[in-house]
Design goal:
Shape: elongated
Distance between the termini: 68 Å
Number of strands: 22
Structural class: alpha+beta
Helix content: 40-55%
Largest sheet: 11 strands, mixed
Radius of gyration: 45 Å
Length: 680
C-alpha cells in the first residue's frame, strides 16, 4: 500500500470502525503498525475504555475519504514546521469529536504539542537534517501510547506468575540436587528428612532397664531390603524413642499437592533397624524364661506382614535356604534355659528339657520333627487339649536344640506371595518343655506366625491361596481375642475359634501365664498400608496412649475389672466395632464359606476314616469265614448282605457331606469373584 496513506491514518485521528455485531461508530487511532498493515483504536463505552486492532484495508473500506490522497509533490515541498503544524491542527480538530473524558484528551494533546515543540527546538539548535528528524519522530511516535489500566494489571499479574514459577523451579532444582533425582518419591523423602531433623531421637539401647509385663507388646522395624533399595523406596518409619514409633503416610491432595500424615503408636518397646536379634530377645522373650521354672506358661509370638522379618527374628539368619539357627530367639531361649538349669537352685530338682516343633497349615497340624506327620488335636476327659502323636525330643544342651530347629525349619511349608518369593504359609510353634520326674512343670511356646494378608489381596488367587489367607487371618483374629482375654482376666477365653489357639490353650489360662508379641514391620513406602494394619492389630492387643511422654502408662486391660461374659462357645468371634465396620457383606460371605469348607472337609475325612476302619474289620471277618473248611454258607451270605447294606448307607452319608462341601466351595468362589470386582 502507498506509504502516503499512513500520513492520514495517524495516531489521534478519529475514524469510523465496524464492530463484530455490525455496529459502526467513532474510534481514535492510537498506534499504526506498518509491518502488519494494521492500526489499534480505542473508544469510550459504558464508563470504560475499550480497544481493538483493525487491518488497514478494513479502515479504508469503512472510511473511503482516506483513499483520496493529495498531490505528493505539493506535500513533500512543505517545510518541516508547517507539516508538523498541519498535523497538530488536524489532531486538534479531530480530538474534539472523540467521545472520551476531556481531561484525558486535553492532557494527551498538550503532551503531544510539548513533545513536538521540544523536538523542533532541539533539531534547530543541533542542526539536524529535517528528513532524518521526521523519520525519527515517526518511529518514536509508535511506542509512545497510553495503555488501559486493565492491560497494565494483566501484564503485572503475568510478570508475577513468571517470577513465582521461576522461583519454584529454582527451589525444586536446589532440592533435587540435595536428593537423588532418579528417586520417584524424592519429595516425600525430603519431607521425612526435614521432619526427622526436628526430632530428638533417643532409641533403645542395650543398657536400658528390663521391664517385666504380663503382656508385652513391642514392634521391630527391619532395614530396607535389596529389592526396596533397587526401587529406591523411601523409609517411612521413624523410631524416636524406646516406646514410640511414627509412620509417615504419603498423601496427595486434590490439587496434587503432596504431604505427609504422621501417625504415632506407643508400645512397651520399639526397635529400629539397627537393633540386633540379641537386643530384641533381651527385652522381649528373655524375661519369660524364668516363668517356666516357676511352673508357669510363657508364649512369644512374632507377627507381621509377609517378608517383614518374622522367621529371621525367631529362627535366625538365613542365606537362601541355609539357616544359622544360633542367631534366633529359639536358640537364645534354649541357651538361657540350660544356663538356669545349671544353677544350684534348679540343679538338684531333677529337671529334664524336651522340645517339640510343629506347624499349623490350613487348620491342620503337622509334626516337623517326625517327617511332617499329620496330627490330631483333641480334648481329653479333663477338657485338656492334646495333640495326639506329637513327638517330644529330649535335649541335653543348646547345640541339640539348634539341630532340632534346623531339621524342623527345613520341613516347614512355604509359598510365593506378592511380597516374598519364599514366604512362610504356616504357623510354626517351637516349644521348650520342662518336666520334673515325668510331670509337666512349665512350657515356653515360641511361635513364628504366618504372614498376615488382606482378603482383597488373595481374592484373585487360586482356591488354595485363598484358603491359606482365610485360615491365617481367622487364627490371627482368634489369637488377638485370646490375648485380650488373658490381659483382662476374663473367665472365658475363645480358644476354640482356631487350631492355633486350641493348641496354645494352656498358655492363655492361669494366673502364671505370660505373653509377649513382637510386631514386625517393613519400612518401605510401598508397604505403608500393611505396616499400618500390623501396628493397629498390635495396638488393639494392648492399648497404650502415644501422647503420654512420661513413664510407663498403666495398661487399661490389666486394670480393668472382670466383665460378664455373654458369649458361648458357638458365638464366633467377638469383633471390635472397627473390625465389624471393615467387613463387607461379600467378605462376610467369604468367611462363612471358608468356615463351612473347613468343617465339612474335616467331617468327610472323619467319615472316610471311620468307614475304612469298619470295612477293614468286617471284610477281614468275612474273608476269615471263607478260609474255614466247613463254614456255614447261610451265615456268610447273611453277614455279607448286612455289610453291603450298612456300608451303602454310610456311603450315602459321605455323598451328602461331599455335596455340601461342593456347595460351600461354589459359594466361596462366588464371594471371591465379588470381592475381586470391588477391589480398588
Amino acid at each position: 500500500m502507498d506509504s502516503r496513506l499512513y500520513r492520514h491514518v495517524c495516531p489521534g485521528r478519529v475514524i469510523n470502525i465496524q464492530r463484530s455485531n455490525g455496529l459502526i461508530h467513532k474510534a481514535t487511532v492510537k498506534t499504526v503498525n506498518v509491518e502488519r498493515s494494521s492500526v489499534s483504536v480505542e473508544w469510550f463505552e459504558g464508563g470504560a475504555v475499550k480497544g481493538k486492532e483493525i487491518e488497514i484495508d478494513d479502515v479504508i473500506t469503512i472510511n473511503p475519504e482516506l483513499s483520496e490522497l493529495p498531490a505528493a509533490d505539493a506535500k513533500e515541498n512543505l517545510p518541516l514546521q508547517e507539516n508538523v503544524t498541519v498535523q497538530k491542527q488536524k489532531r486538534r480538530t479531530t480530538l474534539s469529536k472523540i467521545p472520551a473524558p476531556r481531561e484525558a484528551v486535553c492532557g494527551r494533546s498538550r503532551m503531544s504539542v510539548i513533545t513536538e515543540s521540544q523536538c523542533s527546538l532541539q533539531e534547530n539548535e543541533m542542526g539536524v537534517d529535517p528528513c532524518t528528524s521526521t523519520q525519527t519522530r515517526n518511529n518514536s511516535s509508535v511506542p509512545v501510547r497510553r495503555r488501559s489500566n486493565i492491560v497494565k494489571e494483566m501484564e503485572k499479574m503475568k510478570n508475577k506468575r513468571e517470577e513465582k514459577r521461576a522461583q519454584i523451579s529454582e527451589i525444586r532444582t536446589k532440592r533435587a540436587q540435595e536428593f537423588d533425582s532418579s528417586c520417584p518419591n524424592w519429595e516425600f523423602a525430603r519431607m521425612i528428612k526435614e521432619f526427622r531433623a526436628t526430632l530428638d531421637c533417643q532409641p533403645i539401647s542395650i543398657t536400658d532397664p528390663i521391664e517385666e509385663h504380663r503382656i508385652c507388646v513391642c514392634v521391630r522395624k527391619r532395614p530396607l531390603n535389596k529389592q526396596e533399595l533397587l526401587k529406591k523406596e523411601c523409609d517411612v518409619i521413624t523410631v524416636p524413642s524406646k516406646c514410640v514409633l511414627l509412620v509417615h503416610e504419603p498423601k496427595q491432595k486434590v490439587d496434587l499437592t503432596k504431604y505427609l500424615e504422621t501417625q504415632a503408636f506407643r508400645f512397651d518397646f520399639s526397635f529400629d533397624e539397627s537393633s540386633s536379634n540379641e537386643m530384641v530377645y533381651r527385652f522381649t522373650a528373655r524375661p519369660l524364661v524364668e516363668t517356666i521354672f516357676e511352673g508357669g506358661k510363657a508364649t512369644c509370638f512374632a507377627y507381621g506382614q509377609t517378608g517383614s522379618g518374622k522367621t529371621h527374628t525367631m529362627g535366625g539368619d538365613f542365606s537362601g535356604r541355609a539357616q544359622n539357627a544360633s542367631k534366633g530367639i529359639y536358640a537364645f531361649a534354649s541357651q538361657d534355659v540350660f544356663l538356669l538349669l545349671n544353677q544350684p537352685r534348679y540343679r538338684s530338682q531333677g529337671l529334664e528339657v524336651y522340645v517339640t516343633f510343629f506347624e499349623i497349615y490350613n487348620g491342620k497340624v503337622f509334626d516337623l520333627l517326625n517327617k511332617k506327620a499329620k496330627l490330631r488335636v483333641l480334648e481329653d476327659g479333663k477338657q485338656q487339649v492334646q495333640v495326639v502323636g506329637l513327638q517330644e525330643r529330649q535335649v541335653g544342651c543348646a547345640e541339640d536344640v539348634i539341630r532340632m530347629i534346623e531339621m524342623g525349619s527345613a520341613c516347614r511349608t512355604s509359598g510365593q506371595t506378592f511380597a516374598n518369593a519364599s514366604s512362610s504359609r504356616s504357623h510354626a510353634c517351637f516349644q521348650i518343655i520342662l518336666r520334673r520326674r515325668g510331670k509337666l512343670l512349665g512350657k515356653f511356646s515360641l511361635v513364628d506366625l504366618a504372614g498376615n494378608e488382606r482378603g482383597a489381596d488373595t481374592s484373585s488367587a487360586d482356591r488354595q491361596t485363598r484358603m491359606e489367607g482365610a485360615e491365617i487371618n481367622k487364627s490371627l483374629l482368634a489369637l488377638k481375642e485370646c490375648i485380650r482375654a488373658l490381659g483382662q482376666n476374663k473367665s472365658h477365653t475363645p480358644f476354640r475359634e482356631s487350631k492355633l489357639t486350641q493348641v496354645l490353650r494352656d498358655s492363655f489360662i492361669g494366673t502364671n501365664s505370660r505373653t509377649c508379641m513382637i510386631a514386625m514391620i517393613s519400612p518401605g513406602m510401598s508397604s505403608c498400608e500393611y505396616t499400618l494394619n500390623t501396628l493397629r492389630y498390635a495396638d488393639r492387643v494392648k492399648e497404650l496412649s502415644p501422647h503420654n511422654g512420661g513413664g510407663e502408662t498403666q495398661n487399661q486391660m490389666e486394670t480393668e475389672n472382670e466383665e460378664t461374659e455373654t458369649s458361648g462357645e458357638g458365638s464366633g468371634y467377638n469383633l471390635s466395632k472397627d473390625e465389624e465396620e471393615d467387613i463387607s457383606p461379600h467378605m462376610f460371605n467369604f468367611r462363612e464359606a471358608m468356615t463351612q469348607i473347613s468343617e465339612r472337609e474335616e467331617k468327610v475325612v472323619e467319615q472316610l476314616r471311620e468307614l475304612r476302619q469298619r470295612m477293614t474289620t468286617e471284610l477281614d471277618y468275612l474273608l476269615g469265614i471263607t478260609e474255614q473248611p466247613d463254614y456255614d454258607l447261610e451265615t456268610f451270605v447273611s453277614r455279607a448282605k448286612h455289610f453291603v447294606e450298612e456300608n451303602s448307607r454310610n456311603f450315602l452319608s459321605v455323598r451328602e457331606t461331599l455335596d455340601a462341601l461342593g456347595a460351600a466351595m461354589q459359594l466361596e468362589e462366588q464371594a471371591s469373584k465379588q470381592m475381586s470386582r470391588q477391589r480398588p
